[in-house]
Write a structure and sequence with these properties.
alpha/beta; Glutaredoxin; five-stranded mixed sheet; 4 helices; 36% helix
């Protein structure tokens, strides 16, 4: 099974995603399409997704270059420092976990899911 990326493209979606996280966990992956480290992190998530046990967790994909203001809003809304690549676990409207670069590990995300 490949990673079921959901595009994150506007502020209304971000609000809906935060609301959705009150029912079940949600992931946001912030990706720079011109960065080789970001590409490696994305590929790692895609390779590990099927075995991660997170297949019932929606994962949103944010293209930082196309949606720069939205990337800044994610950092502000969830109180995390903006980094790229970055994976955030949103639960109950808050960031319960965030990691960046090669620190992104789906097993750590799975452990943080409540």
């Amino acid at each position: 099974m490949s990673t079921p990326w959901l595009p994150l493209t506007d502020a209304a979606q971000l609000t809906a995603l935060a609301d959705e996280s009150r029912q079940h966990p949600v992931l946001i992956f912030k990706h720079s399409t011109t960065c080789s480290i970001s590409a490696a992190a994305k590929a790692k998530i895609e390779r590990q997704w099927a075995a991660s046990g997170l297949d019932n967790v929606p994962i949103y994909y944010l293209d930082l270059l196309r949606f720069r203001p939205l990337a800044a809003q994610v950092a502000d809304q969830f109180g995390v420092r903006h980094e790229s690549p970055q994976l955030l676990l949103i639960q109950n409207g808050e960031s319960a976990y965030d990691a960046s670069h090669m620190g992104i590990r789906l097993d750590a995300v799975k452990a943080a899911v409540k």
